[in-house]
Amino acid sequence: MENDNRRLVTFGEYPTAAEASIIAGVLNDNGVHAGVVGDTTANALLMTPMRVVVFENDLDLARQIIDSQPEQ
């Protein structure tokens, strides 16, 4: 099937919506389509994790991009 390589997978889980958005932003800025999935209300009230998702065929590149970022 033509769209098999467009399956979304979890890149990582993050404790806050802000942190997940930063990671997704870095990935998007570097050419990897990424999004944040989760309930922001539950995250704020219950500290449920937010997930960053990418296409399966971009997962290795996404890891390389984040691993190459300087520690802050």
How do you describe this structure in short?
This protein is of the alpha+beta class. About 40% of the residues lie in helices and about 25% in strands.
Task: Lay out the secondary structure.
Layout: E1 8-14, H1 17-29, E2 34-37, H2 40-46, E3 50-55, H3 59-67
Antiparallel strand pairs: 1-3, 2-3
Give a verbal description of the structure:
With 72 residues, this protein is of the alpha+beta class. The chain has a single domain, classed as Alpha-Beta Plaits (2-Layer Sandwich). The chain has helices at 17-29, 40-46, 59-67; strands at 8-14, 34-37, 50-55. The radius of gyration is 13 Å and the shape is globular. The termini are far apart. The model has no long low-confidence stretch (mean pLDDT 89).
